[in-house]
Amino acid sequence: MKVPMQWIKEYADIPVSAEEYQSKMIMIGNGVEGYEEQGAEIENVVVGRVVTCEPHPDSDHLHVTTVDVGEEELLNIVCGAPNCEAGILVPVAKIGAKLPGGIKIKKGKLRGVASEGMLCGGDELGVPVELYPHVGEKGLLIFNEEYPLGADVKPILGMDDTVMDFEVLANRPDCLSVWGIARETAVACGTKFTKPEITVQECGGDIHDYVKVDVEATDLCPRYIARVIKDVRVAPSPMWLRKYLNAAGMRSINNVVDITNFIMLETGHPMHAFDLSMVEGNHIIVRKAVEGEHITTLDGKQHDLTAGQLVICDAVKPSCVAGIMGGEESEITEKTTTMMFECAVFDRAATRVTSRALGIRTESSGRFEKGVSVKTAMEAMQRACQMINQLDAGDVVSGIIDIYPEPAQQQVITGSCKRIASRTGVDIPAEDIVRILTDLHFGVERDGDTLTVTVPDYRQDVDGEADLSEEALRVFGYDKIPSTLLRGETTPGGRSARMRLKDEVARYLTGMGFYEIMNFSFVSPKTVMKLDLGEDDYRLNQLPIRNPLGEDTSVMRTTLTPGMLNTLAVNMNHGNEGARLYEVAAIFDAENRTEENLPTEIQKLCLGVYGKEEDFFTLRGVVERLLGYLGIETTVEARGESYLHPGRRAILMAGDERVCCLGEVHPTVREEFDMPSRAYIAELDMEQLARLRKPMGAVKPMPRYPAVTRDLSLVMSEATQVGPLMADMAKAAGAILEDVKMFDIYRSAALGENMKSVAFSFILRGADHTLTEAEVTKAMDKILKVAAESHNATIRA
Amino acid sequence: MKEKIAQIEELLVTELAVCDSLQALDALRVKVLGKKGELTALLRGMGQLSPEERPVAGQMINEAREKFTAMLEEKQALLKAQAQEAALKRETIDVTQPAAMPKAGCVHPMTLVLNEVVDCFTGMGFEVVEGPEVELDHYNFELMNIPKNHPARDAQDTFYVDDNIVLRTHTSPVQARTMLTRKPPIRVICPGRVYRADEMDATHSPVFHQLEGLVIDKDVTMADLRGTLNAFAERLYGKGITTRFRPSFFPFTEPSAEVDLTCVACHGKGCRVCKGTGWIEVLGCGMVNPHVLEMCGIDPKEYSGFAFGIGIERITMQRYGIPDLRLLFEGDVRFLGQFR
Known about the structure:
The structure holds two protein chains of two kinds. By secondary structure, chain A is an alpha+beta fold.
């Protein structure tokens, strides 16, 4: 909320600089975004009178003038404004003057005629139309009153104040008002808050002869106050009012409308003025709209109302959306003669819902949403009528309509001084608590340690002892909070099992050259389509977000793979030679709900690699080593997900359980994801890993007998899978086989088409004796036999 | 005999002088000391000597053998050293040429920061607890003292799945779940992903990471909160970094505070990073609102507690001078490869 300091100073003195004031306010809990010194960019612009004004000899639109700025000599100034004429009083930028936008006025020549300055228009000085009449007109700003020649124009144009920009906290709607801020100011600066004395001069008559008010929806309108003004004299507002409104960021309209805005800014109570001649039946009804009703609001837009939205109606139709915006029809115009002021309180939630539904947010709706005090509404209404008197904008008819069926109770809190202080950790003496609360206008009675505190009407946020702690502490000083370490029973603390597993995986993978990535948890529903999954795949059932930012972030992801493919593509397309990436994050299974009807969240691990050193086997090696590290043994099966190359994909099985599917990305999918190079990808389930992992047991004893190594080259068909062959051979060799490795694959014309020669190395060792030649030969024979019989693999000739 | 030995020695000296390989040296050794060598021949010829001469001659031969052996060994050592020196010279490489680098890898910068923050609090006895990212409105809002139609629940800020399910907007629901299932003393931290309906730009992201902390025990005060956060600040940023508390408002804490840390760039003197204030806004915190305690089944008359929330992105960006949040989510290895 923007407030000029002069306005605050009318109610509480600020004996310090703007800078210091800002920090004092911040330290007692009133956020300040900053402050702006109005007219800071304007220098050396004064009031001057055009004495003579002649056409320029060499131009058809320039004038040559002499200008009196109260100095001995007149200034010769060339001016191009069409409204320039002798006798007018205008702002004059003298040589060396500064104007908004960093413009500096220098001595110059215009078509051969010397010019000693510039006559200014409103736009050149940055004066808004609402602030000074005639500003909007083309050409020079012509003063409409007499001012001393040579006087600084800034105070005249209302540009000499400092405007503070307050960031009002959500629990302090009372500070969305000048009075609220002035009350805080008095506490921050140690000065006194003085509210103006409010008196209203009435002109007689009876309000009931002018208007009838019925509140049908008392649930959404706890209080409705109306007063009538007759013989309305609509006119422009005086300079001081225009200045305040402008500084607060509001446009000046006319004296009556300006009063409603002024009251809203000053007291925090939004008000509305109705032209009574446009109120059918002179009857105001506060009720819920019925389906099919509509209204044209002040901004000229038509809105269809839905049932339940609160409206202020006349006898026939809605004429105002309660607390949000008035209707065009009953708007105050220059023709208005009799009007009704409304100062009411509307329900927070209802205002918010209607404001969202209609897409209208106003200063008024914002205040009602945050909460307007029901108790202080009368004061605001009376202040508005006082302003009518003061500006002579009409005559206030006697009588007030105040529909307030359930007057709010005074909030009283009892508390203990000791507890109020102890919560804060600061030894705030009881006397200080009493003093601070009193300064904040709480009613305080102290009986030993017990405080009975009456909360001021406008403080809706204070309802318990903890609130009193905060009030006491923020004024006593948050900087006085000491620093103590936790006491009491100790707790073991530590990371969760899930986090520890993630750390372990991260340690292993980063050691293998992987970088961790983080992708968004929501994706486009179409992304998963690119994977060409089967029709009933659970990953197609993605949890939708009701109000997404856009289509591309509208469903929760069911797999990490598309995100990984995108990131690989980004790296490829940025020209990076290769990458090893991983992500650990939750996926959301919308099909399987928890007991609370939430989607099941499963932590997944996704790996993706590309680059000239990468292939299917480098990735499978990384995955198998990771699984081995966790104590999970797997076998390989040549099948897998549809988004993988059909000849280069595999599933790793731990017993009957599928642990991982990995492989080369299918060329069609690569195209979909705009990936120019081949890439390899794997996805695993962290929770499954946690379940399957086995802790390391005792170490094996070191071997005591020598090992025998035998190499073997077997020729077989290309179709023969090496994995099962090795498994069978190992099984055939029995317990003395320590290890078998494949070390070469050879193809040649001599071997024949579709044939390969695969070389293996077998390490054999006896646990309790040195193997004899006979034992070794017997094992090798068994190996050869199973290779030949089960896999048609024979020793290379 | 003496002369014969002298002759052999002369021969040995002459040949040693020209001997330039270990093989030649070995041949020389055989020639002089071998079974058929010249000195051995002398020994064999001793039979012809008189019994009186024999011991004298034997001693002379043995002395000569020792002497010749030493001469040969000396030469052998010399030759070995020369050979090694030559080999070393031959094997010299250009040590300045590029090394064979193993692949480098690293966790995400936010994980780096999160790990540090987590370590700091686990060291103080905090336990990590986690909870769902898609969360019930009840835990995310109601129990956090944010009733229906509170401005903070505005559809603009919160992603909804339906009327009862939201993408959590903070990790506070994990605190609520913890309070409902555990008895004080509670000291937990809840790190995790959270969601707000903000368009992505240099400083906003609809997905970001938080770490919230919660302590519930008897007689917990705001001074304990400050002490805990001061310890955190020092651990994360080093000695002399301290906190400044400013009054603030959060629905779930009362009193509430916004916490600034001494600007790490200028140590509080005022600089560009802290916009001249000497302070950097880092987190929000406060004493758990008694209403929240009550709703979560903890008696506010018996227990009090504090809570705080830290934005991991903000600390990461500050620490590494990252100008644009989007870099953290893009996954470009040219960016990720800079972290260690």
